[in-house]
Design a protein that fits this description.
Layout lengths: L2 E7 L6 H13 L3 E7 L5 H8 L4 E6 L13 E2 L1 H6 L4 E5 L2 E5 L2 H13 L7 E5 L3 H12 L4 E6 L2 H10 L8 E6 L2 H9 L3 E4 L22 E4 L6 H8 L3 E3 L2 H16 L5 H13 L26
Parallel strand pairs: 1-2, 1-3, 4-6, 7-8, 7-10, 8-9, 10-11, 11-12
Antiparallel strand pairs: 3-5, 5-6
Helix pairs in contact: 1-9, 1-10, 4-5, 4-9
The structure holds NADPH dihydro-nicotinamide-adenine-dinucleotide phosphate.
Length: 303
């Protein structure tokens, strides 16, 4: 029987995840099909009930359901519990286990960003949504001592700090209001800058003025294209990395959970590149649909 894995989101019209997961199943000779399920929030409980069926290896969950799905499943891993968000489901009989593979995906990206340098201890994070939760938890686990979160709606950043209160009790985790001058002064004191907002996803704009970037920064943008922020960072002489590494490794971690096998990373990376070349831009953590497709060209390496 062909096994099924589904991506549950709203909307989910095109998906980089589908391309990379299907390529991985095919390469490994696993008889499985990765399907896209566009389900509105009201349909989520029914979708989750269906995934409990025997034909399913599991699922991915994406915007806007990552947090909403938590009360519908039976068991959470430590990362899912700590972040309060689930992006991957596995099945134990009819019980569902919720995982957050954005966290290990981010940790691989952070290691790649830092390279051979000593792991820094200070970071500035822009954004306080679902992606930011995985980032902040990854930074706490990586031993960061000071992390400052800026968000357009300050209360959301404050909520995130409160959420991590206990796991961050030993460190300085702060929410600050979004003002260019405050961001600039915090960036001057830090080594790692992470964009976890969607600014730059649909338009070729940066969340912060290019002038505040300096050559000794390590800059990660969760968006998987060469955004204006990353281009500005490179112009300033900083190290810049886009979100593809995180996307690839969250997918690889999910694949390993579903199949019990190590993910064929090269095959998945090639499939990602192939899908991107065909204009597919949406995946876990990224709004999908017509509004997105085609809008990223200005930020693509070809520009
Ligand atoms: P959410 O919708 O949960 O959060 C969006 C964030 O962007 C919020 O902090 C929001 O601020 C901010 N934002 C959006 N528009 C603006 C604006 N015009 N001005 C200021 N702030 C703005 O999304 P996610 O956290 O899931 O995703 C955020 C980004 O990270 C997306 O681009 C997504 O593609 C990427 N991502 C990449 C992953 C990867 O594997 N590479 C994994 C997860 C996410 P506010 O709260 O004030 O609205």
């Amino acid at each position: 029987m062909t096994k099924r894995v589904v991506l549950i989101g709203h909307p989910v019209s095109h998906s980089l995840s589908a391309a990379m997961q299907q390529a991985a199943f095919d390469k490994a000779g696993i008889d499985a099909r990765y399907e896209l399920w566009d389900r509105a929030p009201i349909e989520l409980p029914t979708a989750i009930a269906e995934v409990r069926g025997e034909s399913f290896l599991g699922a991915n969950v994406t915007i806007p359901h990552k947090e909403r799905v938590v009360p519908l499943i039976d068991k959470l891993t430590e990362e899912a519990q700590a972040t309060g968000a689930v992006n991957t489901l596995t099945r134990e009989g009819r019980r569902l286990v919720g995982h957050n593979t954005d966290v290990p995906g981010f940790v691989v990206a952070l290691d790649k960003l830092v390279g051979r340098q000593k792991m820094p201890r200070q970071a500035v994070v822009l954004g306080a949504g679902g992606g930011s939760r995985a980032v902040v938890y990854g930074l706490i686990r990586a031993g960061f001592q000071r992390v400052v979160i800026f968000n357009r709606h300050l209360h959301r950043a404050e909520g995130l700090v409160k959420h991590f209160g206990r796991s961050a009790a030993h460190m300085d985790l702060k929410a600050m209001p979004w003002h260019d001058s405050i961001i600039e002064s915090e960036i001057a004191k830090t080594k790692v800058l992470i964009n976890a907002t969607s600014i730059g996803l649909n338009e070729d704009v940066s969340p912060i003025p290019g002038e505040v970037l300096t050559g000794d920064l390590l800059v990660l943008d969760l968006i998987y294209s060469r955004t204006r922020l990353l281009r500005d960072a490179e112009s300033a002489g900083a190290v810049a990395l886009d979100g593809e590494t995180m996307l690839l490794h969250q997918g690889a971690a999910a694949y390993a959970l579903w199949t019990g096998q190590a993910a064929p990373l090269e095959v998945m990376q090639d499939a990602l590149a192939g899908a991107r070349a065909q204009g597919v831009r949406s995946a876990e953590g990224e709004p999908a649909g017509d509004a997105v497709v085609g809008l990223g060209e200005a930020a693509s390496p070809a520009s």
